[in-house]
Amino acid sequence: MVDGVRKAFRRPHHQTHTLKERALHPLRRIGHDEFLAVDDVSFSVEEGEFFGIVGRNGSGKSTLLKMLAGIYGHDAGDIWLRGRLSTFIELGVGFNPDLGARDNVMLNAIMLGLTPSMARSRYDAVIDFAELREFEEVKLKNYSSGMHVRLAFSVMIQVDADVLLIDEVLAVGDAAFQQKCFDQFNRLRDEGRTMILVTHDMGAVKRFCDRAMLMERGRTIELGEPERVGAHYLDVNFSGDRAASVAQIGAGADDLSRQGDGRARIERMWVEDDQGEPRMLIQRGDTVVVRFEISFAEDMAEPSVGLVVEDDHHRPVFAGNSIWVARPVGNFKAGDLVEATVSFENVLASGRYTVTPYVASRGSADLEFADRRKDFGSFVSAGPNDTGAITVLDHDVVVRTVGTDSSPNLRTGATS
Asked: Can you give the residue ranges of the ABC transporter domain (predicted)?
């Protein structure tokens, strides 16, 4: 239970960085102001409940979770926790980068409350779940961030904790491992564990959480059913002027996500609704219109122009291009600047989706990219009655009586 919790940090007005500045201004006093990270937050979580905390970056949700974990103290209010606690908050916390997996698992498990003998007995389960058997003798400083995540999560689920605190660092894991984590969430639910999950993934909140809380500027602005909290979260993030200001999502700067031989360049990209208005938030059932500008450095005849849409777990959910719809796009000369438009009906579940546009020519076996901008922009789908599926398609259900439970055909499975 959390009652009226408050946490403030002091921010300096001026920071002295060098000895020269200190010598020139020895009497300068550094003033401070107070930044209120968490302000009068109250909620309770029942035993066996899965509780989600969502909010924009800087809303105070991670600070709140660190207070629950005992990493931060609180300036006012009260926090009551009952039972053994296991936390998954900071990537790499509790790990020694100069040790291998075995020593780190032992140390981390003991810090989380296991006895040395229990930690040894569960080591194989940890390393196998993390899929790191061939890397168990490698020092952790040579692990990727994804390997760190797998190891830390695997240790956490082997601890006999009553309450689990999990921050959004799960987003670092790949899609396959995230699915394994979700399977473990289901197991933990079945075992009656309590979990508090901080995340940006409203799909995960709706799928697993019994209730959720939305934070904004350190305060609770919505508490209740995940569906209602999710709708408010999308409204806070992507409605009104803010949606229009971020709808023009691509710019021409080079980045590491660019792939292609340079015959053409995708300069910028933006998302509109079917009325031609820039939008970040697209309601389910409406049309998503993606426009992007292409400049040509060389002549290209009938290029393939298209895009791929992926969800937050990097799963492709839609792809389309000019070849598949048999639409000739024309022949272009070096120096031409054109605008491409790809439109499709939004049948996607609520959540955030990234867009990867491309321009290519047909190779002997595959597309040969002139330019491909990985995750160049994004949009948000919103709508009621999410089922946990990737898409929400129009469909019909018909039920008709074909007999009774005493019918021989129903009893034996016989056919006529």
From this structure: 19-242
